[in-house]
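User: Hi! I'm working on a homework problem where we have to compare a predicted structure to a textbook description. Could you give me the structure for the chain below?
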Amino acid sequence: MGDADTYNVTVSHKEHKHNAVVKLMIYERADMPILEVLTNTSGPWFCNVSVRCATLHGLWVESLCQLTQGKLVCRETARNDSAHSARLLITVTRDAINCSSSNPASTSSAPLLPVTQVCPAPVPGKE
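Assistant: Happy to help. Predicted structure tokens:
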């Protein structure tokens, strides 16, 4: 962006002067991510769902979510956002899978994916 650069600044207060080099970074608002189900091999007593959180700029992260000891747990399996200032994250609560995109300026989240939409297996506390 046009103003992003390294600047030499001088701060003066009374008889004191302080010189510094400042690197100015400009960030756009974090992209709204999209959460999609890649595979779903769930049944009455188990749940294995693979999901992808992606942005329109081609960044993505994938996780495998499994019902383990009555709790849905998501484990990251792949990502391609490591060389970018934006960071994608998939998290899970008792009720939903969440996908968020963040950078130093902001955070955006995709609509939540209800666990009951992808896991027919009973989740404790939700029967």
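For your comparison, note the following. The two ends are 52 Å apart (CA to CA). The longest strand covers residues 5-13. Good luck with the assignment!
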